[in-house]
Amino acid sequence: MNVKISSIHFNADKKLEEFIQERVEKLEHFGEDILGAEVILSLEKPIGKNYDSKVVKIKLKGKGKEYFAEKKRRDL
Q1: Tens-place pLDDT, residues 3-46
Q2: Can you give the pLDDT at residue 57?
Q3: pTM (2 decimals)?
Q4: What is the DSSP string of 10-35?
Q5: In a 10 Å sphere around its CB, with 0-12 CB exposed, 13-18 middle and 19+ buried, how is residue 73 labelled?
Q6: 76 falls in which pLDDT band (50, 70, 90)?
Q7: 42 and 9 in contact (C-beta within 8 Å)?
Q8: For residue 44, which of 6, 7, 9 has the smallest C-alpha distance?
Q9: Closest by alpha carbon to 34, among 58, 65, 71, 72?
Q10: β-strand pairing of 66-75 with 2-8
Q11: Is 22 within 8 Å of 15 (Cβ atoms)?
Q12: Please, what are the domains in the chain?
């Protein structure tokens, strides 16, 4: 499976990219029509707050379908 990983506002290290690659490839077991994935990692600073939010967005591309998920986590 072709997995494209992008990081915004930071540089993802090799270990993180390998972890993501392993996890996304396991999704092939749930649907044979999954052809590729795009993973976007980012750090966001909410307005007026003194902490960062870590955000991951995943888009799975299949035969005539797309699946999307997003998860945010606050860093204290």
Answers
A1: 999 999 889 999 999 999 999 988 888 777 888 999 999 988 77
A2: 96
A3: 0.82
A4: S---HHHHHHHHHHHHHGGGG-TTEE
A5: exposed
A6: low
A7: yes
A8: 9
A9: 65
A10: unpaired
A11: no
A12: 2-75 (3.30.160.100)
Could you identify the residue written with the tokens 């939010």?
53
Could you give the strand order of the β-sheet that contains 52-62, starting from the edge strand earlier in sequence? Answer: 2-8, 34-44, 52-62, 66-75
| Total residues found in the chain within this entry | 76
Report the C-alpha gap between 40 and 72 in whole angstroms.
Answer: 12
d(CA 17, CA 23): 10
Radius of gyration of the chain (CA): 14
Which residues make beta-bridge pairs with 62? Answer: 34
Alpha-carbon distance values, 53 to 18, 31, 39 (Å): 22, 31, 16
